[in-house]
Write a structure and sequence with these properties.
Layout: E1 13-15, E2 19-21, E3 34-35, H1 37-41, E4 50-53, H2 57-68, E5 73-76, H3 88-100, E6 104-106, E7 109-115, E8 123-129, E9 132-138, E10 140-143, E11 147-149, E12 181-183, H4 194-208, E13 222-224, E14 230-234, H5 237-244, E15 247-253, H6 258-262, E16 269-275, E17 281-287, H7 291-303, H8 308-312, H9 323-331
Parallel strand pairs: 1-12, 3-10, 4-5, 4-10, 5-6
Antiparallel strand pairs: 2-11, 7-8, 8-9, 13-14, 14-17, 15-16, 16-17
């Protein structure tokens, strides 16, 4: 009711208030036909049809979830490709898999009108895609696009704090620009992952207690909990080539992996990007079974500077999904065993 129940004072404060969706006109949630993620998870019946606005991580996760249950899903993304922050090749391959499973993908698409008034229990969307306009009708529209740091009611201006691009800016020690105030998790941006938030919170607390800890974001995996899974750590191919000019790339498809074939999960690949001269691993990108587990092989190798040559000397048990990682390492030098190249 707006009453102050208790006032707390401290010389050291940690803000970990999360993030909230950004409503972008003309879409405005009504909790019935136009939904946010909370309403989508609380549905008691499967929709007859669904549009998902936002083709990033959350959009693809929700899309594969509803698609698996037989719901006709259309994924609408304003950028030129889905999963725009992931490696381009993984993004392109993922789109192909989703299309094969019956999902409709609209990229470079902008919603200009959302009309709920003409027909009960449906939403008419007017969409402009690459200069062409079309109207599409759905029973439900799910918004999982942009988010902002949740600082509502915190009066951060009184602490001389301000949002930057929607989030509280912090340094690698999780310090804000105001002495004694730290921020961690979604409110600080830089991706929305629980494991990242855990690390940031631990770093902030340790620094609050007088230690000197820093977060190195290079080794934090991006994980897509969808079907199939996808994960990445480090630089994309485009980023690596821009920074290092000359790189080597190894790839191995799961169709050549015995464990994946036995499990009927042979869609996808492992892709490893390495520095050309010394074999340092710069990035690992995985699409396919157990991707969110296998990605830690890449993260550990990068963190501890275990290069391509060192991994080649290891023995990976057979049959395992992890052999696909090993064979991708071998493919950096065109030495992969269970795949034929022209």
């Amino acid at each position: 009711e707006g009453k102050v129940v208790r006032q707390l004072e401290s010389e050291r404060i940690l803000i970990a208030s999360g993030a909230v969706p950004v409503e972008v006109p003309p879409l405005k949630k009504d909790g019935r036909s136009i939904l946010g993620s909370d309403e989508a998870l609380n549905l008691t019946e499967l929709p007859r049809s669904m549009a998902i606005v936002g083709g990033g991580k959350r959009g693809v996760e929700f899309g594969t979830f509803f698609n698996t249950f037989g719901v006709p899903v259309t994924l609408i993304e304003k950028e030129g490709r889905i999963l725009p922050k992931m490696d381009r090749e993984i993004s392109v391959r993922y789109r192909g898999l989703l299309t094969k499973r019956g999902m409709k993908i609209l990229t470079d698409a902008q919603i200009v009108v959302a009309d709920l008034s003409k027909e009960k229990d449906s939403v008419m969307l007017r969409i402009i895609q690459k200069g062409k306009e079309e109207k599409l009708k759905f029973q439900k529209v799910l918004i999982v696009g942009d988010r902002r740091g949740n600082t509502d009611g915190l009066d951060i201006e009184k602490a001389k704090l301000a949002l930057k691009e929607g989030f509280l800016p912090v340094d690698s020690r999780m310090k804000t620009s105001s002495p004694g105030i730290y921020a961690a998790g979604d409110v600080a941006g830089k991706g929305f992952f629980a494991h990242k938030a855990f690390l940031e919170a631990e770093t902030a607390v340790r620094n609050l207690l007088g230690e000197d800890r820093q977060v190195d974001y290079r080794f934090i995996p991006t994980c897509l909990y969808s079907y199939p899974e996808a994960a990445s750590v480090g630089l994309t191919e485009e980023e690596a080539k821009a920074k290092y000019k000359e790189v080597k790339i190894g790839k191995f498809p799961f169709v050549g992996n015995g464990r994946a074939v036995a499990a009927s999960e042979q869609d996808g690949m492992v892709k490893i990007i390495s520095e050309a001269k010394y074999g340092e691993i710069l990035g690992v990108h995985i699409l396919g079974p157990r991707a969110t587990e296998l990605i830690h092989l890449g993260a550990m190798a990068m963190k501890h500077e275990i290069g391509v040559e060192e991994i080649r000397e290891m023995t990976f048990a057979h049959p395992t999904f992890s052999e696909a990682f090993f064979e991708a390492v071998l493919d950096v030098s065109d030495d992969a065993i269970h795949i034929m190249k022209e």
